């Protein structure tokens, strides 16, 4: 089974690209979606114990938590030490299910793939990228996003140019969906072909 690591900085079109892989028969594990689930369940009491007042009856209050951790490296590291092992557990369950289902390839959508040294868990790294002006426009159009928040998130992410250098494949999303889909299809075809060889 080919493990494709999918990553890209905020606003590059990674989630949309991930769905393109799914359409071509590659099951996807989305680390962000996993975190959302964990924030509503298993992780909430652990986060409340470490950062009191950041949860409510629905689980973790992301807004309250962001205020505590966003510009504090030590707090961010504490949060990551709680959440990353739980995400890995979910990922492992996903792998086991994909193997049972006979999947030829799986996609691991990991926003901080390079930053968290997750490359060892992947056979191939695909980076999703777009010009900086398009990235900024996409991100600032999101509800609740500010320039300050965008810059803080960007500061925690490896620069796009460095990610591109480290990638096995780069998918450009700045020229629209059709072109991005064609790039995804070529990658899947090539990986399956190489696997047969």
Mind explaining what this structure looks like?
- It is a single chain.
- With 197 residues, the protein is α/β, with parallel strands linked by helices.
- The protein has a single domain, classed as P-loop containing nucleotide triphosphate hydrolases (Rossmann fold), CATH 3.40.50.300.
- The protein is 56% helix and 14% strand.
- The chain has 9 helices and 7 strands, in the order E-H-E-H-H-E-E-H-H-E-E-H-H-H-E-H.
- The protein has helices at 14-23, 31-40, 43-50, 62-69, 73-100, 132-140, 147-156, 160-166, 177-196, and strands at residues 2-7, 28-30, 55-56, 59-60, 105-109, 124-129, 169-172.
- It has a 5-stranded parallel beta sheet with strand order 2-5-1-6-7, with helices on both faces.
- Strand 3 and strand 4 (59-60) form a beta hairpin.
- Helix 2 packs across helix 5 and helix 3 (43-50) packs antiparallel against helix 5 (73-100).
- The protein starts with a strand and ends with a helix.
Keywords, please?
197 residues; alpha/beta; Rossmann fold; 5-stranded parallel beta sheet; two-stranded antiparallel sheet; 9 helices; 7 strands
């Amino acid at each position: 089974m080919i493990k494709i690591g999918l990553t890209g900085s905020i606003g590059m079109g990674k989630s949309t690209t991930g769905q393109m892989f799914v359409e071509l028969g590659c099951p996807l594990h989305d680390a962000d979606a996993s975190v959302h689930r964990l924030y509503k369940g298993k992780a909430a009491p652990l986060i409340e114990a470490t950062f009191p007042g950041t949860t409510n009856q629905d689980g973790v209050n992301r807004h309250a938590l962001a205020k505590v951790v966003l510009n504090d490296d030590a707090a961010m590291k504490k949060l990551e030490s709680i959440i990353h092992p739980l995400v890995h557990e979910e990922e492992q369950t996903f792998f086991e299910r994909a193997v049972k289902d006979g999947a030829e390839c799986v996609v691991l959508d990991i926003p901080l793939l390079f930053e968290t040294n997750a490359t060892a868990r992947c056979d191939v790294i695909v980076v999703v990228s777009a010009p900086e002006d398009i990235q900024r426009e996409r991100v600032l159009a999101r509800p609740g996003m500010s320039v300050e928040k965008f810059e803080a998130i960007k500061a925690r992410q490896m620069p796009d140019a460095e990610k591109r250098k480290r990638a096995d494949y780069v998918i450009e999303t700045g020229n629209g969906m059709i072109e991005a889909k064609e790039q995804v299809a070529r990658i899947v075809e090539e990986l399956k072909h190489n696997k047969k060889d």
